[in-house]
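Lecture notes, continued. The same structure-token format from the folding unit now serves as the input rather than the output. Read the line below as a description of shape only.
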């Protein structure tokens, strides 16, 4: 019988409420260079429940875990270099980190797609597709061929194992809940999954919207099967101090029937082709949700619709913080 690793033992102890024992065990093995223990300790340092939140120490643990051969840590380390999480941002070093683990299929595919991107040495887009304005107020526009077919395919593949029922923010309950208004599945790319490929796409979205990449929430992939839809709603949240100013959607496929994005007040219906980006404003100048931005995802009649979605705020999150459910739950 194979014994559980120190990291798995520590997780089990923590689950039993034996936090001090779990931390001692994890520290002992991490300090000896155990890659799995180092990676687990990094995640705990980011989460801040069992260890004090320390992003710089977490980044160092991830770096050491990658050097110890932990493939998951190597992917995360490349992402931290790309985003600047827990330390300085270094795009060339992020690309080098992918090259160092080119025997990892996902690192190799990221590297291949990044090399095909029109970006500079900082990972920023050198060229963007022309946009077509569909409506002035609220501002709605489409950028055709915003992502390549290969980029769309990798995003969909990365999301596949992480899909969960999607949630919405309930104004009355002041929290995220499952609700019949939205019956899709969702998969997010939080900071530990914002690998260089994902981050490069987030920077492209920032360039297309004229915003800082740090203003964007976690990139999400949404999946709608036959009969599923997103009923009429607003993306902006009443009372949110740092409002969701814009929404950016990228259509990852187009081999489905139905599923159009509908803007009800503007009487606009969008059925994007694979790789097209749809970007629209959500809020009035004073930060209140714009009623005219009310929109819906029509029911899918056949096939499966997949889109990438990113909400873009008025300004970046506070230093050391991140956008999340806890922050939205305090709104209003």
């Amino acid at each position: 019988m194979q014994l559980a690793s120190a990291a798995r033992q520590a997780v089990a102890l923590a689950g039993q409420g034996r936090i001090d024992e779990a931390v001692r065990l994890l520290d002992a093995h991490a300090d000896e260079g155990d890659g799995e223990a180092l990676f687990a300790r990094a995640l705990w340092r980011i989460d801040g429940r069992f260890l004090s939140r320390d992003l710089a120490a977490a980044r160092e643990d991830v770096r050491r875990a990658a050097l110890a051969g932990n493939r998951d840590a190597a992917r995360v380390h490349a992402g931290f270099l790309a985003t600047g999480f827990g330390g300085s941002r270094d795009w060339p070093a992020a690309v080098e980190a992918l090259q160092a683990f080119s025997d990892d299929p996902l690192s190799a595919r990221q590297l291949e797609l990044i090399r095909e991107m029109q970006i500079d040495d900082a990972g920023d887009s050198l060229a963007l597709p022309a946009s077509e304005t569909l409506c002035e107020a609220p501002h709605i526009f489409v950028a055709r061929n915003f992502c390549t077919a290969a980029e769309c395919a990798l995003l969909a593949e990365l999301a596949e194992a992480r899909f969960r029922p999607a949630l919405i923010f309930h104004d009355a309950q002041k929290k995220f809940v499952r609700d019949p208004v939205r019956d899709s599945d969702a998969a997010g790319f939080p900071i530990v999954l914002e690998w260089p490929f994902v981050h490069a796409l987030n920077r492209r979205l920032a360039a297309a919207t004229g915003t800082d990449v740090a203003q964007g929430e976690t990139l999400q992939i949404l999946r709608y099967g036959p009969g599923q839809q997103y009923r009429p709603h607003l993306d902006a949240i009443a009372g949110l101090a740092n409002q969701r100013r814009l929404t950016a959607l990228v259509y990852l496929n187009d081999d489905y029937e139905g599923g159009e994005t509908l803007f009800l007040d503007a009487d606009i219906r969008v059925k994007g082709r694979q790789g097209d980006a749809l970007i629209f404003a959500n809020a009035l100048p004073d930060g209140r949700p714009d009623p005219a931005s009310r929109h819906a995802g029509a029911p899918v009649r056949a096939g499966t619709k997949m889109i990438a979605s990113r909400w873009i705020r008025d300004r970046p999150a506070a230093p050391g913080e991140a956008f999340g459910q806890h922050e939205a739950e305090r709104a209003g």
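Point for the exam: The two ends are 54 Å apart (CA to CA).
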